[in-house]
């Protein structure tokens, strides 16, 4: 499965568009937006407890 990383915060996404959105937000705000970050591979894995 393809993973797309946000080059700024380092979170990974399975959706390229989401990674781009995260990157854009991080570049402007220098922090992650929760409703984007929660869809990251890391956040999903944490929710699933794996
Ligand atoms: Zn980011």
Key features?
binds zinc ion, 2 strands, mainly alpha, two-stranded antiparallel sheet, 50 residues, 8% strand, 50% helix, 3 helices
SSE pattern: EEHHH
Helix content: 40-55%
For the largest sheet, list the strands in their spatial order. Answer: 1-2
Portion in beta strands: 5-15%
Low-pLDDT parts are none
Rg over CA atoms, rounded to whole Å, is 10 Å
Number of separate helices = 3
DSSP summary, beta strand count: 2
Main sheet: strands, sense, barrel:
2 strands, antiparallel
- Secondary-structure-derived class: mainly alpha
Multimeric status of the protein = single chain
Envelope shape? globular
Q: Cα distance, first to last residue?
A: 17 Å
Bound molecules: zinc ion
Work out the count of structural domains: 1
pLDDT averaged over residues: 93
Could you please describe the fold and organization of this structure?
By secondary structure, the protein is mostly helical. It has one domain (4-47). Helix content is 50%, strand content 8%. It contains three helices and two strands. The chain is globular. The model has no long low-confidence stretch (mean pLDDT 93). It binds zinc ion (ZN). Residues 6, 8-9, 11, 22-23, 26, 32 line the site of zinc ion (ZN).
